[in-house]
Task: structure prediction
Amino acid sequence: MSFKIYTKTGDAGQTSLFGGRRLYKHDLRIESYGTVDELNAYVGLLRDNIKDEKVRQLLKAIQDRLFTIGANLASDPEKDLPAPDLKVADIQLLENEMDLMDKKLPPLKNFILPGGHNTVSYCHVARTVCRRAERLIVALAQQEKVAEIVLKYMNRLSDYFFVLARKLSQDLEVEEVVWNPRKVDE
Result:
């Protein structure tokens, strides 16, 4: 049996949620899970540039969770559909990993700018896309039902990417790029 990726059902600017409800492609729900999908692509790019197998495995697990979040956001909230779930343990894993990395990092004394190494920059891109996805999901949650754990996970995930960027700088032996604000009188 042959399967075609194109259906032509979205040619008029609408798409279907799991459950059948059709929405315009610019709908906040579609923007939310589309941005989660974009984040997942950046996490894949980041993972492809990391040699540490433990970090690679965690990033793959994060990609799995992001796909879970996307599936939940792509499901019609008005229907009680079975969807993969996110667990508190998923958030705790991120927190535990941040705590472990943080113990090996110097205290944060400055604002950090993205840069110093491509891999570090990819991590910061993932962080900022994660924050955008989180903002969209927060806006969606003000209009429709969104599981609270999704918001918590996304918030923690962006923090994880920040700490990971710092740890990658250390592992790659590159200096963190610190923000040097211009003085008012300059």
Remarks:
- Residues 40 and 78 are 26 Å apart (CA to CA).
- The radius of gyration is 19 Å.
- The helical segments are 28-48, 53-73, 88-103, 118-141, 148-171.
- The longest helix spans residues 118-141.
